[in-house]
Automatic annotation (TrEMBL):
Species whose genome carries this gene: Mesorhizobium plurifarium
Xref: Pfam families: FMN_red
Enzyme Commission number: 1.5.1.38
Matches recorded under InterPro entries: Flavoprotein-like_sf, FMN_Rdtase-like_dom, NAD(P)H-dep_FMN_reductase
Keyword list, A-Z: Flavoprotein, FMN, Oxidoreductase
Gene that this sequence comes from: msuE
UniProt superkingdom: Bacteria
Protein name in the entry: FMN reductase (NADPH)
GO molecular function: FMN reductase (NADPH) activity
NADPH-dependent FMN reductase-like domain boundaries: 4-147
Length: 174
């Protein structure tokens, strides 16, 4: 049985970005019959910003790195700030070995306040995972505030976009 891991670059909870990543991961895990785990920057805690290597990293952060490095597929989402993913999310990946994601399917997602921020996916996210030589899944999921209802539940339109992206991820995995 495989494992799919979700990483969300949110700093607080509740979070639309975390909800988006959770929804994608749950749908993919169900379709593939895999186990799943979802983490966010809240799970890493404040020590992440002061961690500059694996050697003396706190166990809660090492647990996240280990999950990323050993999963069979990865979903990474971030809120868009200043036309990019969050800095601490980048820092989390900066410490991962450059070969750790080689050949691993990665589906990217983002949440933002403005439609123009969707460009971040192609201009920031995809190049990050291309550096790692991951298989960046064609398609992605981008969501605005209006794509979420009460309790951050995805709207029907967002659920359809998620289903399409998950279908592509499943095709890449199989």
């Amino acid at each position: 049985m495989g494992t799919i891991v979700g990483i969300s670059g949110n700093f607080s909870r509740p979070s639309k970005t975390r909800k988006l990543v959770e929804t994608i991961v749950e749908a993919a895990a169900t379709e593939l019959g895999w186990e799943s785990q979802v983490f966010d920057l809240v799970d890493a805690g404040p020590p992440l910003g002061a961690t500059f290597g694996r050697k003396n990293a706190p166990s809660e952060i090492d647990r996240i790195w280990t999950a990323i490095e050993t999963c069979d597929a990865l979903v990474v989402g971030s809120p868009v700030y200043k036309a990019s993913y969050t800095g601490l999310l980048k820092h989390l990946f900066d410490i991962i070995d450059m070969n750790a994601l080689r050949g691993r399917p990665v589906l990217v997602a983002a949440t933002a306040k403005a439609p123009s921020h969707e460009l971040m996916i192609d201009h920031q996210f995809r190049p990050l995972f291309a550096f790692f030589r991951a298989i960046v899944v064609p398609g992605s999921v981008f969501a605005l505030d209006q794509d979420f209802g009460p309790e951050n539940e995805p709207t029907e339109g967002l659920r359809q976009r998620i289903a399409s992206a998950v279908g592509t991820l499943v095709a890449v995995v199989r």
